[in-house]
Known about the structure:
Radius of gyration: 20 Å
Number of domains: 2
Distance between the termini: 48 Å
Keywords: Amino-acid biosynthesis, Aromatic amino acid biosynthesis, Lyase, Pyridoxal phosphate, Tryptophan biosynthesis
Number of strands: 14
Strand order of the largest sheet: 3-4-14-9-10-13
Order of helices and strands: HEEHHEHEHEHEHHEHEHEHEHEEHEHHEH
Subunit structure: Tetramer of two alpha and two beta chains.
CATH topology of the largest domain: Rossmann fold
Family: Belongs to the TrpB family.
Largest sheet: 6 strands, mixed
Helix content: 40-55%
CATH class of the largest domain: Alpha Beta
Enzyme class: lyase
Shape: globular
Bound molecules: pyridoxal-5'-phosphate
Amino acid sequence: MQQKPYLKEYPNAEGFFGKFGGSFVPDAVKKAMDEINVAYDLIAQNSDFITELRKIRKHFQGRPTPIYFAHNLTKKYGGAGIYLKREDLNHTGAHKLNHCMGEALLAKFMGKKKLIAETGAGQHGVAIATAAAYFGLECEIHMGEVDIAKEHPNVIRMKILGAKVIPVSFGAKTLKEAVDSAFEAYLQDLDNSIYAIGSVVGPHPFPKMVRDFQAIIGVESREQFLEMTGELPDIVTACVGGGSNAMGIFSGFIDDCVELVGIEPLGLGSKLGQHAASLSYGSEGVMHGFNSIILKDSNGEPAPVYSVASGLDYPSVGPEHAYLNAIKRTKVATISDKEAIDAFFELSKNEGIIPAIESSHAVAYALKIAPELKGKKILVNLSGRGDKDIDFIVEKYGYGE
Ligand SMILES: *Cc1c(COP(=O)(O)O)cnc(C)c1O
């Protein structure tokens, strides 16, 4: 795949973006990661693999997804033009399938039989289960019992798709324990399976691989935006949980003179425990096998985090974001629960698009800055659709009058 100069150079051979990234895992896992890395380097140059992935993007996922000019919101806010990259129209309703199909195709090329993954809200679980069904692979999804109770529709989807959902009943019974459990299962079955990580996080080569699979968003966006407007956008923005949808769209503009802004969830406020804005309030540390910026408690352990968007509440962030932020190539801003909910209803009522509550954070940022930026153009990565959120939102916030 043809890559921009920056993308070729980062990460280095050991998976470092500056001092961030790397691979801090037990030797057995390191060996498995090295095998994945070698296989990935091979297939990334292999025309069969590239052709197959292109076919999948077009005929199964429904790519390219369009860019849409949000004409009503642009008019209403009276400043910058607001454009949306419609990842919500990707099959399964979010960007996650972009890397899940890539990871599953890699598993197939490596002769693996099984995909193992953890899931929090169930979005990654559904995307992996979809990819497993497509490729005829076994699929095992580890999920905390608390999340299983909360995210019932996604549990049903995974089971319909043929995945085995493993309830995790220790600790807080949520995402962190699901990661520990999935990791344990993977260790027991390194030869047969692949641990399909759900964002640009984890040990090398996952942050690089997932970015490369998501880069399709950036490649399409750059081309479409030029075709549509004759120019590049002034600002590109995306929400950041682990950071995969943001890295996907940012990578298309990384060597251009375009401002890139990652949006972190401020939740209920700036006190530790009220938010999940890792880059904004965290410090350097290793978690889940990579060095990055982490929200820590007073003992230096990963702190409890919160956001109304369960896809964004992770106490660390992809190492590439930590690096790009440190060298000031990207900027970070925060958006609160309330601002995100308001944006959710603004986009729904003014444009007829119900966004995921995660994506609503990026929309909120665009609405916040647009009035002051007349003559400029803002491109928002609309990472997913909001169907999964509507019951919760209506129960808690009504219909947004
Ligand atoms: C999972 C998810 C996110 C957050 O993940 P990133 O890796 O930060 O992109 C954002 N939006 C949607 C719709 C999601 O499902």
